[in-house]
Amino acid sequence: MRHLSTKATCNSHGQDSSYFLGWEEYEKNPYDEVQNPKGIIQMGLAENQLSFDLLESWLEKNPEPAGFKRDGKSIFRELALFQDYHGLPAFKKALVEFMAEIRGNRVSFDPNHMVLTAGATSANETLMFCLAEPGEAFLLPTPYYPGFDRDLKWRTEVEIVPIHCTSSNDFQITETALEAAYHEAQQRNLRVKGVLVTNPSNPLGTTLSRSELNLLISFITTKGIHLISDEIYSGTVFSSPGFVSVMEVLKDRNCDKTEVWDRVHIVYSLSKDLGLPGFRVGAIYSNDDVVVATATKMSSFGLVSSQTQYLLSALLSDKKFTKNYISENQKRLKKRQNMLVMGLERAGISCLKSNAGLFCWVNMRHLLRSDTFEAEMELWKKIVYDVRLNISPGSSCHCTEPGWFRVCFANMTEETLDLAIKRLKDFVVEHTANGHSKSNNSSKNSKRKFLLKWVLRLSSRDRDQEPDER
Amino acid sequence: MTRPRPRTHESESETRNPTGGGATAMRLIVPLQGVVQGRGGLILGSLIPCALFYFFQLYLKRHRSPKPGSNPTSPSQSSSNLSDLQRSSSRSNLSSRGSIGPVQVSSRASSIAKPNDSPYYIGLDRVSEDPYDRLDNPNGIIQLGLSENRLCFDLIEKWLSENTKDSVMGRDGGDLSISGIAPYQPSDGLMEFKVAMAGFMSQVMGRAVSFDPSQMVLTAGATPALEILCFCLADPGNAFLVPAPYYPGFDRDMRWRTGVELIPVHCRSTDNFIISITALDQAFNQTRKRGIKVRGILISNPSNPVGNLLPRETLHNLLDFAREKNIHIVSDEIFAGSMYGSEEFVSMAEILDMEDIDKNRIHIVYGLSKDLALPGFRVGVIYSFNESVLIAAKKLTRFSSISAPTQRLLISMVSDMRFIQEYIETNKKRIREMHDLFVEGLKQLGIKCAQSCAGLYCWADMSGLISSYSEKGELELWDKLLNIAKINVTPGSACHCIEPGWFRCCFTTLSQEDVVIVIERIRKVAETCKISS
Question: What is the ipTM of this complex?
């Protein structure tokens, strides 16, 4: 047999089957207000669909960029031929200014330090190739985005070592946890190359505090390692405490011309803040010239379409539009998040207090039969099949405590969200009424059989469709 | 080879994972085989080398694990601090340092960050510094090193002016809506786009074969398509055989991050640079002797840089060879629609249609950068008959997906069969006109070109102008052409051509007036070469 490579044939890369099983079930029976009102509501997709109207109205008022025109003249030829991996200068300029605006202009970015990639997925992988050898490791605080197991590890052969965070302090990163993770890596004979954090966090929906950022910077300074700050949700911060970028803290600490300045890198994208994941626009920002040079060349494997770069450069250069968009978008996200949080509260379910993101980190521990991941899976399956909501279980995010779920709120209409909350409320009422928290033996057995059946089905199924989102 | 190089100022490769250590061991064992095989007898030949190997492994193991509970500032960590101190002086010398770079980035990054020393890339850089413009910079360097097609943009612009508004935004219930293109799409491309591309490929290849959209994976350009296939078909350290001369970009696309090696299989001008199976067989055996596993053959058909087609018989022979050796064939057919001669292009897919054999080893790469002249839009295709490859490749497209608005726009364009037919025919005509003009011009200077009927370039034999029949002579001529004649052409050595003196000249970025100027400039240099020789 003509063998395939090891990478092609090795199964999954931390691909949590539950995460994708939910997707599959959703695809089979998707909710539709008119066509399929009893279908599964998708709440596992971190997409921002709340502000399309703002984008559409801009496009309507500005037909030139979409038509490859500038000042009445066609620039189609230039765009069609433009495959320079340095990126369209006008676009990079507009993008760095947009990033600065999101940070309240407390920091500024240099377009020459930015590398464009086809989405943040590509940006993260490229940074791994640049910073680590096969077999080296990055530390990531848990819970983290399940896609990292694939994006950071697969082709790069880099390892992830978790920094365990717990609800005892609202999942904040502590020095003890950092040191413990570092130590664990050493025990596993893994050389640690850096720390990767998502700020604001996915799946928590919280921004890193100044003290956490300071802690991280001190940690990487001492250890002589890198820090990657994935800030793709930076524009979705809708309430206090505001967003503090790692660049800001570095500036405050006067790290500008020091060694550590070159070891901090930011990943950005327009998939969440502008709600344009289909456009595939991501960026790496680094102060290290070698990283920028290497990443630039590697971006050949994932360039952004020149058509898209041009369109977005026009959009983002419109400062009036961006100012209005950022604030309006945040307002709408806040309203939505509040809707979900209040609704869940009425159902007796609490969430981690969040100020950002397109989702809530929901605490359903009290609904678990036992404080185990098995029980979490049981509950999750019930929610997918009976309640008909696709949400993401904490175990898929490597959370150390069972019972947490990520629930998205920005990818549906208000009515749909209302319905989802209602369904969940009804479920909780029924669930507590039947005393399911302390179930009897027979239902345990049937649950076990149920689980076994699913495990067998999972292992034999071939996953075709894979969600790309976060 | 692109294996990560061990850093020189710290305790070397022990920090790699066990597989890495095993690979190091392999490199020791192979040379020792000679001793084992006969010269040393039992004790000297096997026991002692084995014992040495055992102790070496032990040594590696001991020095791999850091001491438990080590203080962050202990020696094993301070080595990275050492590198911090070194960094400030080494950074400015990065480009000249070679493999000794700062520790801060991975060694694979260091090697990639170095400025590329191939004339192919140097030439491209020089043109961007001093580009020719008829009005603004008439003494600038004329670009003949980039296989771009600028001959038919007027057709596309006309199409756009008649069709754009509808096609960019997805139509959603009659209203133009961004919700058609904004959300997440399947990473391997919209099904509608695959259907459109399947039809386009078939049309462009003369309808001799049809393509199944479900066997297609779309990527952001042919560059990632090739890399993804490489990741799927080969492990680091494996090799692909590539008929040479070949496109210089393969060295980057196929090797950089994959760790795969490319073995050139030299073709001769006497064969019009068509690959011979004998040469292929030789290369295969030689590679195997070096202990390297060959995973497949990478062909480009129509060929870049020569511009000829692989005849049916050769394709059949390649297939037989691949079957015999149990390896893959990757056929890069990106110039299939840029035919200007009268010969018929035969795709690998067509050969497979005829033979009822297992098709799992054949993979085709395509893209819109050449045939539709849209390199900026990033559209590439992996077409495979192998289910497992398709599944793996699909997953890998998450790193290289095509932008949705671009897909939407192009679905309309490439599905417009009437327009595509007109485009193909006009394109063919215009490339041929330019080709004939250019080749005739070279002929007047006594420079012959290889027989070609496709591509956006010609393969010119300028060996008559070089002072010494060697790579050195060739590069001297290249330098003269670049700096005196001020034209950028690609020397054969950059394409791994074994015969010196050949140059790839792309002519589809020129206007007819430009061709005259180019020929004139070459003539001046040619005269000085003849005088000196």
Answer: 0.89
